Structure formats: structure tokens, C-alpha cells
Amino acid sequence: RVPSTQQDGTVSLQHSAAAKSLQYFVLSVFIYSPNVCAVQKLIGTNRKYFTNCKQWYQRKICGKSTVISYECCPGYEKVPGEKGCPAALPLSNIYETLGLVGSSTTQLYSDRSNLRPEIEAPGSFTIFAPSNLAWASLPAETLDSLVSNVNIELLNALRYHMVNRRVLTDDLKHGTSLPSMYQNLSLQIHHYPNGIVTVNCARLLKADHQATNGVVHLIDKVIATTTNNIQQIVEIEESLETLRAAVAASGLNNLLESNGQFTLLAPTNEAFEKIPQETLNRILGDPEALRDLLNHHILKSAMCAEAIIAGLAMETLEGTTLEVGCSGEELTLNGRPIIANKDVVATNGVVHFVNELLIPDAAKTLFELGQESEVTTSIDLFRQAGLSSHLTGNERLTLLAPVNTAFKDGIPRVDNNMKNLLRDHIVKDQLSSKYLYHGQKLETLGGKELRVFVYRNTLCIENSCIAAHDKRGRFGTLFIMEKMLTPPMGTVMDMLKADNRFSTLVAAIQSAGLTETLNRPGTFTVFAPTNEAFRAMPRGELNKLMGNAKELSSVLKYHITDEILVSGAVGALVRMKSMQGDKLEVSTKKDVIQINKEPVAESDIMATNGVIYAVNSVLQPQASRPQERGDEPADPALEIFKQASALSKVNKNLACPWFSRLLAKMKGNPGTI
After folding, report:
1. Whether residue 189 is found in the same domain as residue 80
2. Which of 307, 330, 358 delimits the end of a domain?
3. By C-alpha distance, which of 396, 440, 448 is closest to 422?
4. 400 and 353 in one domain?
5. In terms of domains, do 389 and 452 share one?
6. What residue stretches are annotated with the FAS1 domain (predicted)?
7. N or C end of the chain: smaller count of CB under 10 Å?
8. In this predicted structure, what is the pLDDT of residue 518?
9. Which pLDDT score, from 0 to 100, does residue 32 have?
10. pLDDT band at 58 (very low <50, low <70, confident <90, very high)
11. How far apart are CA 479 and CA 418, in angstroms?
12. What φ, ψ does residue 422 adopt, rounded to 5°?
């Protein structure tokens, strides 16, 4: 960044890759010089923000780029040849100070309204003085009505901007109010964590300009008197007629007229008209859904538009969050510029008019939740299966809906078998995933029992794991699942017998006396060798294995664990203890499940007492594996010299002739030196 001097004498830092070496020099000269304040200026506008670190490093305000400038802090000026702004200006009264801070229009109107004698006289006042641009931005008819009746309306308006004591920014506490000098009507103060301070939602541009008889704060708006609470604003605004009826039906009147600091995102009549009539009638006719809807439009704190310089998650009374942000001059909700009228200040908060209705999940049906999520393909399958009434009614249900990507290889045809399977994707209770526990049984509309498996980093129902956060609707909850689930149809032995790929394995299990084990209740994971796996073994080795019941039992038990592990729970590496006693290593590589580094042919064949993986090789326990050197045990000394030889190839300083001769001799006569 490089410094550039502006016409007004301020110095700005603009980004330049070629001038990064000057950065610290510039910072030391300007930031650490006496009485110099940093200002963020919106490029292409006249808007300034006396910045703090939180704003500084964002580099943008409402999506627009900024440039950092440095200017004299209030009450100081430059001296030729000196660093910073060392000279303190002599204090003047409030009237003269108005001209110094950029509020000459306020000064002019003080003359016209006969306020000048009061703000020139001894006393202790605070005035929130609108900038010249703020006065110029008033609608012509509003300004004319003020100026044409200078002795009354204009004087009252100016006195509403004043407090009868000295108030500095440190005294402007968030959520407090100050009595103005016009009929003691309140001024609403908000001091936000990002450093921005507002009075009746007008932002302080330059604060704490001391005067002999008080203090001047320059603000960016002309503020209007505030006498109505939020409920009264709803009652008198014609564009909020439907909202008014909804508030009355929900019983929220008392809340909106109570003391506090709220933000009402008030949906206009137009917003309600955009909702399908059937949906609107359903919500308006359901007191609980209606209350959730309205509470979703009420923020727990007052949020003025001027305080928002970037996206900010705000909690609603309904318990969810909305992202309140900005784009240029527009205020946004969840990234959409749907706010039609902003900063209508009330005695207990602020109202922003919105032209779209914000329907929370808590007021939606399962069908509506699904239509707005990445499960639209599943929702269409449920519709084709004739299950729509369960997704739109008032049954307490949980929908296990596979994500759209689960159907990347094709969408299944909805026949009778698929209809039955889809019924097993609807659980007969409204659940929350955070309350599910390992081993829990869930009953489906199809009459099946589904098991819950809780793993370190995931939560699964049968062979399908939950892929996203729950969406809890009015009566039903949507679980977004990674794939279609397959309810178990029999025990491990039943499933193996029913699959021709495992006929050799079934015979081996029977010979080893393990049939009863795999038929009893349990939580087995079986890595089941296919017929192909047995055919791949050398004939002699296979015959020897099949003829030795004890060894066969040991090898088969090495393929079985007593805990269920579905594929969705396999991370980089999972080690499982087999029934034989040795460990099995289950891992994933390029989305393929591997057991002891051998790829699995098929995963997640679910059984009532476990899960089966088809593997195309017979796994060997450690004790049964052939030695890597079949002729003789490795000689420890030879291994040491082998390692040294490997090192010598890296470091040529170790590659001595005697060492090579010694190694060759040892290879010829192991065990000697």
C-alpha cells in the first residue's frame, strides 16, 4: 500500500503490490503520530467510518471496497513540518462547533429557528447534529414543512436532537435511551460490538467534538420523533394489515408492546400474498405454526441497518438464526435483498418491512422441507409410491430421505417392492438425531425395525448414515441420508444361504460348527469370502484347510467380529478385533472399502444380527501366513547390515569397500562376521 495525499489534507493507504515495503513506514508515520485517527472510506461514495480493528481487516463494507485514510482527530489540527496533528484547537461554543464538523446546515437552521442563542449560551448540552448531506437527503416535502414553520416545527425537531447534559460515546450504552430536550421524548441508543454507535438508527459519523458548553456528535440522518412501540406501528401501517391480524390471532400483541429491544422483520401484505393460499391457510389455522412463523420474524435485539457492515447471524425468538447482511445500500436477509423499508424506529426496538414471508422449518410440512432440500428425487419417489399424505399430514413421523446424489447411477422404478422399501424409510415417530442412541430400534410404517448405530464421527440407521443436520418441521423431521437403506431380512446365516456366491463358505461354516453362532442374536460383522475367493486358493492348501476343523474354525473366526461396522462409518483406518483374536484393518481407498488392504466386492449386506461384506480373497490370520522368506528365519545381524547398506546409498561417505565385502560374505554364510 502506498500513501497518497487527498485534496482535504487526509492521507490514504491504497493497495499496491509494488509498494509493500512502505507499509510499516506508513503505519509508523501516521498511526503512531499524535492525534491521528483512521477512517475507512467507501470507494465511490462520501461515506466514512471511523474504524476499529474489527472493521479495518474486513477491507469491505457491505461488499464494497474501502480505503484507509488518516486525518486529524476531533479538536486537533496539523502544523507545517510536524508529524501528525499536534495542535489542539481552541474550544468554541456548540453553534460555532457545528460549522467546524461539517454540519453548517444545522447551524443555519439553528439561526432560523432561534435555537442559536441557547446553544451559544453557557450550559452543558449534547447535540446529535445531522450532516449537511443528511439534511439534503430529506424528501423535499418533509424539509419544506419543517422550514416553513420555523418557530415551531424546526425548533422542536432540533431540540429532539439534543440532550440537556454532556454525553460522550463512552456513555452511550447499548440498548439505553436518553431524554431529549423536546418533551423528554426518548432517543434510542445502540452501541454495537463492531464499534458503530447509532441514535434512533442514525450512525455517529464523527463523535465527541468538545465545545465550551457541551459536545457535538455528527450523525448521518435527520432523526424523527419516536413515540410508538412496535405493536402500535403494526396497527397504524396499512401495508401491514395481514400481519396485524396474524399477530392478534397468535397473541403476540403483549410482546410487541412490552419494554425491551426487538427487531421486527415485518412482512407486508404483499409478502403474504406470495405464499400459496393452501399453505397460508394451513399456517394461519394452526396456532403453534403461526406463533413459530411470527417469532421467526422477531430478532432478540434491536438491529439498525447502519450497524450492519457484513453478514451477521442473529437469533430469532423462535430459536433459529437469520443472517442479516447488506449489499451496497440494501439490507439483506439470508443473502436476499427483500427488505423494502428499513429503520422504522420504535420505543422498544426497530421495524424493517420485508416483502417476502420467512417461513421457518418449524412451520413446514415434511413435503415442504424435502422440496427445499437436496432430497427432491426422494420426495418424488415417495409421491409416486402414494405416500404424499404422510408427508403433508399431521402424523408425528421421521422421513429418512436419501440425498439426490444417491441416485447418480439411475432412479429406481416404483414397483410394489420399491413401495414397500419406501414405507420403511418413514419412522413412526418425530425424532431428533441428537437423542438417538446406539442399538436403538425404530419402527417403520412398513412394520420393520431399523437399528441405530452411533460411531465416533457419524450416526447411521442400518446401512445408511445421516449426511446433514436434521430439519424439524411442524409434525415431522427430515433426516437427509447418504443412500437408500436396506432393512435386514434374516440372520447372517440366512443371508449367506440365500446368496449363491457364498455356497462354499456356508459349507465351511457348517463343517467348523459355527452355524449356531451366526444364527443367534448378536452384532456381527462378517467379511465373507466368495466362492471365487476359495477357488483362488492353491488346491493343496484348500484341501488341507477344509480337512482340519480346528484350523478352519480359526480362519473363519478371523473373518468375524462381534461389533457391527457399516461402510459409512469407515474412515481412513478402523482396527477391529476378530473372534479369532487377531486384529483386522478396515480402511477406504478411493471410496472403496478394503479389509487388510484387499478390496471388498460388496458392502453392507444387512442381517438382523450383523452386517456382511463380500470379499474375493480368504483372509489369513497372522499365525497362518507364510513367512516372507520361506527358506530360513531372518538373521538379525544381516538385517542390521542391510539397513546400513540402504543408508550408504543415500550417504556416499558410508559406501566403503570393506563394508561391501563384509556384507557379501555374510550373505554367503549367514550368522558369521
Report:
1. no
2. 358
3. 448
4. no
5. yes
6. 91-223, 227-358, 362-485, 489-619
7. C
8. 96
9. 58
10. low
11. 19
12. -65, -35
In angstroms, the CA 189 to CA 175 distance is 6
| Residue 547 DSSP one-character state | T
Report the C-alpha gap between 449 and 120 in whole angstroms.
84
Angle separating helix axes 104-112 and 140-147, nearest 10 degrees: 40
**Cα(148)–Cα(14) distance, integer angstroms:** 46
Q: How far is CA 294 from CA 50, 179, 656, in A?
A: 37, 32, 85
pLDDT in tens, 389-426: 999 999 999 999 999 999 999 999 999 999 999 999 99
User: For residue 157, what pLDDT is reported?
Assistant: 93
Mean pLDDT on 569-582 = 93
Residue 276 corresponds to which amino acid?
A: P
Give me the number of domains the chain comprises.
Answer: 5
* Residue 612 CA: distances (Å) to CA of 38, 538, 543, 589: 67, 25, 25, 19
Gyration radius of the chain's alpha carbons: 38
Q: Is residue 530 part of a domain?
A: yes
346 located within any domain: yes
Which residue range is the domain that position 412 belongs to? 364-481
- Pick the closest to residue 583 from 600, 612, 559 (CA basis): 559
CB half-sphere exposure, 114, CA atoms < 13 A: 6
Task: Return the ∠ at Cα 442 (arms to 441 and 446), rounded to 5°.
Answer: 130
In a domain? residue 243: yes
Report which of 141, 136, 182, 135 is spatially closest to residue 163, judged by C-alpha positions. 182
CB 83 within 8 A of CB 34: yes
Which residues lie closer than 8 Å to 268 by C-beta, 6 or more apart?
A: 239, 240, 243, 340, 353, 354, 355
Distance CA 173, CA 522 (A): 63
- Average pLDDT for 460-482: 96
CA dihedral 545, 551, 554, 556 (to 10 degrees): 20
Query: Are residue 184 and residue 123 in the same domain, yes or no?
Result: yes
| Same domain, residue pair 124 and 196 | yes
Return the half-sphere exposure (C-beta side, CA atoms, 13 A cut-off) of residue 644.
Answer: 14
pLDDT of 52? 55
Which among 371, 313, 71, 85 is positioned nearest to 206, based on CA atoms?
Answer: 71
Mean pLDDT for the stretch of residues 556-577: 94
Query: Which runs of consecutive H residues, i.e. helices, occur in 285-375?
Result: 287-295, 366-371
pLDDT of residue 42: 74
Nearest 5 degrees, angle CA 488-CA 489-CA 491? 85
Could you tell me if 461 and 556 lie in one domain? no
- CATH assignment at residue 562: 2.30.180.10
Same domain, residue pair 600 and 544: yes
What single letter denotes the amino acid at residue 36? Answer: V
Q: Is 203 within the bounds of a domain?
A: yes
Q: Kindly report the average pLDDT of the chain as a whole number.
A: 86
